[in-house]
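Milestone M4 deliverable, item 7.
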Amino acid sequence: MRTFMHPEISVVIPVYCEEKGIHVTLREVDRFLSATASSWEIVVVDDGSRDDTWGQLSAISRKIPQLRALKLSRNFGKEAAVSAGMEAARGKAVVIMDGDMQHPPSLLPQMIETWRSGTVDIVEAVKSNRGDETRLSAARAKLFYFILRVFSGHDLKGASDYKLLDRRVVDAYLTLKERNVFFRGMVSWMGFRSIQIPFEVEPRVAGDSGWSVFGLIRLAAVAVTSFSSFPLHLITIFGAVFLCFSVLLGIHTVYMKLSGMAVDGFTTVILLLLIIGSFLMMGLGIIGEYLARIYDEVKYRPRYIVSTKLPEDGP
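Output delivered:
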């Protein structure tokens, strides 16, 4: 039986369909931790992978005794997998990183030494460049951060999920019980002392990114509605603008009627109906997003369900 005490460092790695490259990532993470940390554990969360990721983790666990793993019953999404890993982690500091080697394990010693200085609670790894991603992917990322900055007030440009969190930050994070979570935004919102360390995004060790356009849109919707009510106020602002416009148009119409210069204006009426109808539908859509968030919260279902653990006799 393997027992896990309270190590100095926990590294949480959420993965999804990473069977081809997970062994490389874990080998490198273990190598840098063994050279830096006095004690450590690696917590891998398999977010319902459809390939043999779990089989690979089972094999690797026999070679790396510090490895723990959780298999979620289905794909709950990266944010839920991060929460699962943070709840399972026992270290005095917890590092969150991706399992595709785009978050370089070579940065771990610098992050750990910076935390050991005692002057910061959060060490954030910030992208100095976005690696070899396509222009389309870069454009999508810029649009995502632009929308988030405009509607929520949080400027997370260049931010990543690659972070080291002190135990008290982790404990504070775990008190936030909402179902729809956005890890980067929530860490920024908590406001602990932080420092940024730049890094260059490395090529993926294997496979392709699991993020789709729909996934980014959904993440943007969750991020904005979780941190700001501004879109709701925007509906009120547009309503006030159209009210003023309607008053002016009404005065003009009455004047034209009384002066005998009124003419039929079906085109104008149709355009006004289309514009106003479009904004009404957009407004209902925005309200619907907030209602969806409320609906998810009041059900109070768990963020994730764990089906299997490694080691089986572990905590």
